């Protein structure tokens, strides 16, 4: 499996991951990327990093919304 930045995610071999676990993992990776971008910003390249930050933040928010809907649906079942 690959993260959004193309790096391979190590698989623990526990068996098949649920969709909720995959979303939680993706959210954690996106939050780590957001943290790294915020920490590396300087005046010379803020415009590019701000755009990247906006895209990653929107993706993370969509993942969180999907996870909440998935958990709500799972609780209702």
Question: How is this structure best described in words?
Answer:
By secondary structure, the chain is mainly alpha-helical. Helix content is 69%, strand content 0%. The longest helix has 31 residues, at 46-76. The mean pLDDT is 83.
User: Helix count, per DSSP?
Assistant: 2
Helix and strand pattern: HH
Q: Which sheet architecture does the biggest sheet show?
A: none
User: What number is the mean pLDDT?
Assistant: 83
> Structural class, from secondary structure content?
mainly alpha
Principal-axis shape? elongated
Radius of gyration (CA) equals 15 Å
Entry summary:
The protein has about 80 residues and is mostly helical. It contains 2 helices and no strands. The protein is elongated and about 45 Å long.
SSE layout:
Blueprint: H1 19-40, H2 46-76
Helix pairs in contact: 1-2
Keywords:
2 helices; mainly alpha; 77 residues
